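To illustrate this point, we now present one chain and its tokenised fold:
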Amino acid sequence: MERKERSRTGRPEAGRGRGLLKKGAAILMMTFAALALCGCGARHLAVSAGLEKSPYYHLGDTEWDHGGVEEYYFDHLDSSYNEIYRELYSRLSNREDSGDLYAQVSADDFWKAYYAVLADHPELFWVGSSAQTVVSNLTGKVVSYQIESTVPADQRDEMKQQLDAAADACIAQTDETWSDYGRIKSVYEYLINQVEYDLNAPSSQCAQSALLYHRSVCAGYAKAFQYILHRMGYFCTYVTGKIKNGGDHAWNIVRIGDQYYHVDVTWGDPVFADGQESGTGITVMNYNYLCCTDDEILPTHIPDGSITLPACTDDSWNYYKINGMYYETFDYDTVYNALMDSVESGRQSIVMKFGSADAYSEAKEQLFTDRMYNDAVQYLMQQNGVDTWNTRYSCDDSFHVITIQWS
């Protein structure tokens, strides 16, 4: 049976200090030997006994290296995690892939801090999502760690240069005179155009899968997006959770001004979205997940609760409102004229977002049951001299968005 013990230390009585010190030293040596046999490292013992202090964090510290980014997870974790978070970040950023810990934490607290560090710092691209830990049988605390690296130590400097160059290539397509929204939107579009969703992508949980290999899953999309935005000086945090009726998922939250917005680059990718919708064939980029609100995304995205997320309630930067694709109510003539203008001007598609479930439902009925868009299809057939024309469409019930792709 595993036995857990707690040791205590006291101050020697006046006039008996020297003798007690010798005796205490002997007891300490014996205790050290016993702890070593129980899997408790020397550093763990020294810190527990007050003989060694952590060089990474002291109670009351307010200044530390944070890599030049706003650490959302660190800022919102309970202060009891400060020491282990700061130690892990310092050691991982210094590329200490293994080591004996100063912080005295349980396995659960170690993992919470470990994942918080990775969520705040996508630039730790060589650190895998798993690691090996040694837990003391005596204290129940984590004694040491060993990460599972995705990049060999001698290749990290070169890969860091490659990642920065890839991020800068994206940033170069923006202009500093643009609004913050405009620059964030450009990064969203860049990654969607550059990256293919691939469950078998290498290093899929890290930024390099998207930025260097151009194949990734949700974690890679989100880490790459965060990596670029951090390099641009923007706030961007990493969110983990699940998809309703689906598996694990990751996305981001950004801040524009004093408001927060969800961004899911993965679900903006039409190839991924098409797979989710059972093959509509739509290839139009999906802007539903660019700067969206809680009300829009939470019906399908369920955060795991590992951290309290900021409220995302503002829709000032809704793509459809900004670009004249938003219809507060359904008006037959307005929608009909928008359809005809779309084909007459040669656009490949039309996207319409409606302001309520009722307006959206009426639009779907008029468009697809009563075939309101027939005149637009007739126009396309006449212009192209053909007798048939295939259109594709998709309807997003959560966002009240209808997409029609004419060709």
Remarks:
- The longest helix spans residues 17-37.
